[in-house]
UniProtKB/TrEMBL annotation:
Keyword Glycoprotein recorded: no
One GO cellular component, as annotated: cytoplasm
InterPro entries (alphabetical): Cytidine_deaminase-like, dCMP_deaminase-rel, MafB19-deam
Domain MafB19-like deaminase: 2-57
Protein name listed in UniProt: ComE operon protein 2
Keyword Hydrolase (UniProt): yes
GO biological process, one term: tRNA wobble adenosine to inosine editing
Highest taxon listed in the record's lineage: Bacteria
């Protein structure tokens, strides 16, 4: 049920590891995914959210 914060959308191998680990939310910045890979997350009820890099910097800098 954990959340995972990563810089880029995960590759298919990493997506499988994320599902196997039971992670339920993935937050990423860079959009390098292939739309048909999203089915793996959808079928396993993993929520996905993209966040803008400038928003991450603002949060990090207070």
């Amino acid at each position: 049920g954990a959340s995972m914060y990563i810089t880029s959308f995960p590759c298919l191998i990493c997506m499988r590891a994320i599902v196997a680990a039971g992670i339920k939310k993935v937050i990423y910045m860079n959009d390098f995914y292939k739309p048909h890979h999203m089915d793996l997350f959808t079928k396993n009820r993993v929520k996905v959210k993209q966040i803008a890099e400038d928003k991450v910097r603002r949060k990090r800098n207070g």
